[in-house]
Amino acid sequence: MSREIVLVSRELRPLLDGERPEWPGGAATRWVAPSEELPLSERVVALIPLLSREISGAEMDRLPRLRVVANYAVGYDNVDVEAARERGVAVTNTPGVLTEATADLTWALILAAARRMREGLELATSGRWEGWKPDQLLGAGLQEKRLGILGAGRIGSAVARRAPGFGMDVLYWSRSGNAELERAVGARREEELDDILSASHVLSVHLPLTPETRGLLDAGALAAMTPGSVLVNTARGGIVETEALAGALREGPLSAAGLDVYPNEPEVPASLRELPNAFVLPHLGSATREARTGMWRIARDNVRSVLAGREPMTPVPESALPGATGD
Ligand code: DGY
């Protein structure tokens, strides 16, 4: 049998600073372009895809000796985890290294949306600004307001930890309680989704995309939000229904939204692009050099572990499988 192959997404190459990845057993690296179909090959034993590549059972069947999918992301909704389990393929993600970067960007969006920075930037760069006015582009103050966190995992908790610096109280909604978060920032858990929607002045989404969370924030849920509140999503676009969100931004109850993710990336829905109170970014949550190189190291080391016959370092949780519970 000729040399085994590790398929690595070609977009990762510029980040590697000339590193030539080495693999147990002397496997070769083959870089795969985004538009390229996965090869039908018995030699491929590992795969490092981006979140934009769907890895279904059919893709795995093209690679019958595949042992590990090391997703270059903390989210793994692009990978059919059940199909992987059935085929004995390990699936790993990149938790931890992008937590603080994503929490920082979430706060950038909270501030940008609440303080109308899109409109401000447009006015300042348009040449039409006529000078300071007492009522110009008034936004929402954050002090003594409530920040609602949907999903109190690593990133949600890191966002919550920054809230006292802005004078905000924290509420959270998650399947299980987070005693540490309650201790650290006095966060209060809301058992019902409707309760956190109606109590939050800023609501920030940090849930994984699963069959249960897809479309969770639909027209009904958005209508239950506090009048004048701000919605921020740095998790996955599919959790919020786009047209319902556009309606809630046009007619209320939302005053603004800060968005980093969309259901069909790289498409940023036109209904959001044209709204001045939607501050939109192109999925930049983890976009710091530190986070992105940390993600590479974790994906690479997961592949090395599995190919060396060891357990993967960061397998996706059992709760990724249907029927299981827990965040
Ligand atoms: C992830 O890792 O899931 C982010 O969406 C990209 O960093």
Describe the structure.
With 327 residues, the chain is α/β, with parallel strands linked by helices. It contains 11 helices and 12 strands. The protein has helices at 57-62, 81-86, 99-114, 117-126, 154-162, 179-185, 193-199, 219-223, 242-251, 270-273, 289-307, and strands at residues 5-9, 28-32, 44-48, 68-70, 90-92, 146-150, 169-173, 188-189, 202-205, 229-233, 254-259, 278-280. Helix 1 (57-62) links the parallel strand 3 (44-48) and strand 4. Helix 3 crosses helix 5 (154-162). It starts with a strand and ends in a 20-residue tail after the last helix. The model is unreliable at 321-327 (pLDDT under 50). Bound molecules: (2R)-2,3-dihydroxypropanoic acid (DGY). The site of (2R)-2,3-dihydroxypropanoic acid has 7 residues, from loops.
Any key phrases for this structure?
2 domains, five-stranded parallel sheet, 30% helix, alpha/beta, elongated, single chain, 11 helices, Rossmann fold, binds (2R)-2,3-dihydroxypropanoic acid, 327 residues, 12 strands, 16% strand, disordered C terminus, seven-stranded parallel sheet
